[in-house]
Amino acid sequence: MTARRVQVLEFLRRYQAMHGMSPSVQDVADELSVCINSAWAHLHALEVAGKIRRLGHRQIEILESALQRLGGAMSGYPAAWVVVT
């Protein structure tokens, strides 16, 4: 997984933990300093890689394999949760 994709996963987790909800795609784009299409492309690539699963419109589940990859940064968080983007 690329450093940029790890950055997306960490941002999704951090934003949800801080705000009690998930960031919008625009928030992801702003965090990465990219356009919305690029943010969607990163989310799609994470899904293809099996790190996230889309559960319907605007919902993403971060899968356990992604949490293991993030290691200590994820300590104390559940194995998976639903985030809205």
Structure overview:
The chain is an alpha+beta fold and 85 residues long. The chain has a single domain, classed as Arc Repressor Mutant, subunit A (Orthogonal Bundle), CATH 1.10.10.10. The chain has four helices and three strands. It has helices at 3-19, 25-32, 36-48, 64-70, and strands at 52-56, 59-62, 82-83. It has a three-stranded antiparallel beta sheet. The longest helix has 17 residues, at 3-19. The chain is globular, with a radius of gyration of 11 Å.
Quick structural gist:
The protein has 85 residues and is an alpha+beta fold.
Notable characteristics:
single chain, 85 residues, alpha+beta, Arc Repressor Mutant, subunit A, three-stranded antiparallel β-sheet, 4 helices, 3 strands, 53% helix, 13% strand, globular, disordered C terminus
User: What share of residues are in beta strands?
Assistant: 5-15%
User: Poorly predicted ranges (pLDDT <50, ≥5 residues)?
Assistant: 72-85
Figure out the total of helices: 4
Summed over residues and divided by their number, the pLDDT gives a mean of 77
Rg measurement, Å: 11 Å
Please describe the biggest sheet, giving its number of strands, its sense, and whether it closes into a barrel: 3 strands, antiparallel
- In whole angstroms, the N-to-C terminal distance is 20 Å
Structural class comes to: alpha+beta
Supply the number of structural domains.
1
